[in-house]
Specification:
- The chain is built from 4 helices and 11 strands, in the order αββαβββββββαββα.
- By secondary structure, it is α+β, with helices and mostly antiparallel strands.
- Strands 9-8-10-11 form a 4-stranded antiparallel beta sheet, with helices on both faces. A 3-stranded antiparallel beta sheet has the order 5-4-6, with no helix packed on it. Strands 1-2 form a two-stranded antiparallel ribbon.
- Strand 4 and strand 5 form a beta hairpin.
């Protein structure tokens, strides 16, 4: 969260919200099992890919966890795992499309029968979708702005996956209790929102593929 995204962000010290959202985001991605770790394997028991996910907030105008989770899913949906070859010594090298063997080490005796991993898109499991709601008396406001979050105080976030399973539920304090009816209403809103986000993601991926 750089200083340009919010008046509450200051240079140097990380924003408190950034630390909280990072932890919530990590838990959501792990609990939903969005990424099968076997998909990152190059050679079982020998080598695997490590994926880093960096998210930069440009405008902190409320519902940051929702935006961060959507950005994470979008990035992973576009992720292409490169084609590589691995020598008997365990060295991982780029593979040529024609032969599957690196041009630099094509004459190496240890590369006569290398382990080759083809380029492929990362397969995703059930996609988690998030919806933040603000509570005011008996009313539920979906997707509040930063100003609304400050005024209404009581905020809760529901994360469900594409199968409708509840992945996580966050309510960081607040003066209004989360009754069963309120929770059910928030879950219902989250399911409706997940369908809208899924359509938007599919359209974005289709457009990206057509342009590339």
């Amino acid at each position: 969260m750089p200083p340009i995204c919010s008046p509450q962000s200051r240079p140097g010290r990380p924003a408190e919200a950034a630390c909280t959202i990072t932890e919530q985001l990590t838990n959501a991605l792990k609990s939903s099992e969005l990424v099968d770790l076997h998909e990152l394997s190059i050679a079982p028991g020998k080598a695997a890919w490590m994926a880093y996910l960096d998210i930069y907030c440009l405008d902190a105008d409320g519902s940051l966890l929702d935006a961060a989770l959507l950005a994470s899913v979008s990035a992973l949906a576009h992720l292409q795992i490169p084609s590589v070859a691995m020598t008997e010594e365990g060295t991982v090298i780029p593979a040529l499309p024609e032969t599957g063997i690196s041009n630099h080490l094509s004459n190496d005796k240890h590369l006569q029968q290398p382990t080759v991993s083809e380029q492929r898109r990362l397969k995703l499991g059930a996609i988690p979708w998030s919806l933040t709601c603000a509570l005011y008396k008996k009313h539920v406001l979906a997707d509040p702005t930063a100003e609304e979050e400050t005024v209404l105080h009581t905020i809760l976030t529901v994360i469900i996956d594409s199968s409708g399973r509840l992945v996580a539920f966050y309510k960081p304090g607040g003066s209004i209790p989360a009754t069963t009816n309120i929770i059910q209403e928030c879950i219902s809103l989250a399911k409706r929102r997940s369908k809208e986000l899924q359509r938007s993601l599919d359209e974005a991926i289709t457009q990206y593929e057509s342009e590339t």
